[in-house]
Amino acid sequence: MSAFNSSGPAEILRAEQKDEELYERINRQLCGFLLKLKGHVFVNVNKKNIFCTSQLLYYALTTLSKLQTLGEEYTKIVQVGKTGKHIPGLMQSTGMILAHVFGDRLIILALDRLIYYVQYNKSITSQAKDQIIHIATTIKSLVPLLQSLNRVLFYWDGSFYTWAKRFFFIKYIYAIPWYHPKRPLHVFKILSVLTGMHLSVLMIMAVFKTPKVQKNVKEHPSQPNPMSSSSKCSLCLEPRQNTSLSFCGHLFCWYCIHEWLQTNNFCPICRKALNPRMVVPLQNFT
């Protein structure tokens, strides 16, 4: 295996982009099937779960079956373990896939449970509660930036594209012996520095925003929302954002109705013919 060279960041990046295109295509087909079977309300409520299912299905048919993903085959690279001499075992691959698909959601869920437990635990002092909740809330605000932080490291060393692969030490080598194309790596290092600067600003903003959020929660505890169903989007079942009016007279979020019209040519409520040109954004609408 020593004749096989480590793959470069350009090949890994193209492979990941190709895989993303493919499991997004699976996601669209799965959404279309469930749309006919369960309806648009079910699809929109379970959008994240359907996307995760699409990812799991794709990786189960490729990585867990000891096969290259189509992106890896396209760029002629192969996954290997920490030593670089063997492909990852079943447990290692399974752990990596589960961490990649559900990792962020599980971390946020665990932090939410911790905050809830601390808030209603009478044996913990008020000062300790404030400190624990502050730390947990800060970490929670930084979780969405975890993948961006790993991306900075990837652009610099070209090893692990996702934090899940970094955690489980899964790297890539070229599938062709002695193959090692000459590619300029300084471009990726410049990109790493620029991405790191942008990420630093986002992390500072997230850290300084946390105390304000906690203060608002204490001063204005959550109350039942008196909002009527008429102010909710029929697709996402949430308060409408950027309210838009269809030609047939129904109101939706701008993003929701246009996402719907990518795969359908009718109104989700009255089933009349509808296309994106027949949707108008409303200004100053309350």
From TrEMBL:
Pathway: Protein modification; protein ubiquitination. Residues 233-271 form the RING-type domain. Keywords: Membrane, Metal-binding, Peroxisome, Peroxisome biogenesis, Protein transport, Transferase, Transmembrane, Transmembrane helix, Transport, Ubl conjugation pathway, Zinc, Zinc-finger. It is a multi-pass membrane protein. Pfam families: Pex2_Pex12 (PF04757), zf-RING_2 (PF13639). Its EC number is 2.3.2.27. One of its GO terms (molecular function) is zinc ion binding. It comes from the Eukaryota. One of its GO terms (biological process) is protein import into peroxisome matrix. One of its GO terms (cellular component) is peroxisomal membrane. It is found in: Peroxisome membrane. Its main location: membrane. It catalyses: S-ubiquitinyl-[E2 ubiquitin-conjugating enzyme]-L-cysteine + [acceptor protein]-L-lysine = [E2 ubiquitin-conjugating enzyme]-L-cysteine + N(6)-ubiquitinyl-[acceptor protein]-L-lysine. SMART domains: RING. It is an enzyme of class 2 (transferase). The keyword Zinc applies. Belongs to the pex2/pex10/pex12 family. This is RING-type E3 ubiquitin transferase. The lineage of its organism: Eukaryota, Metazoa, Ecdysozoa, Arthropoda, Hexapoda.
